[in-house]
Amino acid sequence: MRKMMIAMFIASIGLFTSCDKCKKADCQNGATCEKKVGDCECATFYEGDKCENEVRAAFSGTYSGTAKLGTSTLPTSIAVSNGSGVSGLTFTATITTPSGSTIYNVTGTLTDNTNFTIPAQSVPFTLSPDPRDVSAMMSGSGTLTGSSANATLNFKLNASQINLTAQFSGSK
Of 19, 65, 134, 140, which has the fewest beta carbons less than 10 angstroms from its beta carbon? Predict the structure, then answer.
């Protein structure tokens, strides 16, 4: 009887201590742990077994593709790098037209682990064949997944109030 009691005591210690599998999980960056499984559930903008990686790190790099602007399809590249805070991104878009390339430097924010927005920002804008620069407000939104990027870039020309939309699709 005594041996049976000792065996039951040892078994119950193992049973109750194994219920909380989070003791060794070491979840990071505000992640929570599922006690029965021991897996980390990452907060938005983080990934990895322990939620140790920022999702935006996977998006850094240059995406090459095209931007459809009206009836024109223009060679375009967008370089993505980390901006401020855990959700900040910096975009350098280079749109090439027959008259040359225009570079737009803007900032954006991840809204979740794959989608971003670009709030309205003032950028230079050139209308061909008129080489004079005019200013425009640029805004947009898009999706970054793995090695591909899709974005809608909106331009509102300040002087004429003309609205233009470019649809970008590209990959690393």
Answer: 19
Q: How far is CA 112 from CA 52, 116, 136, in A?
A: 17, 7, 27
Mean pLDDT of 82-102: 89
Same domain, 135 and 66: yes
Number of other residues whose CB lies within 10 A of the CB of residue 30: 12
Number of domains in the chain: 2
Residues facing 144 on adjacent strands: 149
How far does Cα 73 stand from its chain's mean position? 25
Long-range interactions of 5-12: CB distance < 8 A, separation 24+:
none
- Considering the entire predicted model, what is its pTM? 0.79
**Residues 38 and 78 occupy one common structural domain:** no
Over the stretch 14-49, which tens digit does the pLDDT of each residue have?
444 455 678 778 999 999 998 888 899 999 999 999
Percentage helix, strand, coil, to 5, in the chain? Answer: 15, 55, 30
Please state the φ and ψ torsions of residue 129, each to the nearest 5 degrees.
-85, 0
**Enclosing domain of residue 90:** 58-171
Q: Is 100 part of any domain?
A: yes
